[in-house]
Amino acid sequence: MLGKFIANMVTVPGDSPVFETPEKYGLKYETVTFKAEDGVELSGWIINPGMDKIILQQHFASQCSRTGYTPKGKSGVKLWDTDITFLRQAKHFTDHGYSVLMYDFRNHGKSGKANLPYVTGGVEEAKDVIAAVKYISKHQDYKDASIGLFSICMGTNATSLAFGIKGGLENYKNIKAYVSVQPLNYGDFLQGMGMPRFLVNRANNVNLGRGGKDFYRVPYDNLKKVHIPVMVFQNSNDPWTNMNSVKKYYDTIPTEKVMVWADLEKKRAAAYDYVGAKPEEFVEFFNKYMK
Fold first, then answer.
1. Which of 17, 107, 172, 180 has the most Cβ atoms closer than 10 angstroms to its Cβ?
2. pTM score of the predicted model
3. Superfamily of 2-289 according to CATH
């Protein structure tokens, strides 16, 4: 029972409402849907449509949607006391001439349910990232556009895993740059929360037994297929992350890259909030490579 409880902490999608819309920020947008290779229908928006460069934004997992995280209605420990609103950085990107595709991962927000109703740390969600890139690459309005990937937490694991698999991102030369915000694996995450290794292993066995993926799987082999410049952004005070794992993640990337260590509040979600409050450095990075 304890193993199942711990496994559910990080693999049950939880309440992930799409709690606001682009109108709040005065943004023009289109509602879109597209399908992953296994048939899961994904729901999202293209904001500020029609530009010749577009950011694809991948959110983090449990209790998060394309719009971010809201503490409203949440019970137990809350990740953050106020809304973490990803539309803030979307507006900033649009102010600098970008379109933005924001979409919900499988089992989150308004996207469809998968046969496996759990968060897999990016393994199954990598199909969604590939689907988003494929959708934009074939879209009449964006087939000649440059693509930037802006991926957060589980979203960055999914993006990294999407390199080097069937139909992988290494095949898309229109992808020009990639920002990875706080990559992690769930094994490190749970141990960072104070769980002893033997309990994490017990939870991992539960997860594997019901068709989930290994908590300790890190996409190092996939990262070797990355062919674009990468920024890795990490709160150096994040208590739930093994910084050596982040360093290894960064060191494995074979292309031009930059590591940003931010001195933020001692909470993991501080970085998620920061990317909307201070998005200038991310825009500057994309501007360098997306002409």
1. 180
2. 0.96
3. Alpha/Beta hydrolase fold, catalytic domain (3.40.50.1820)
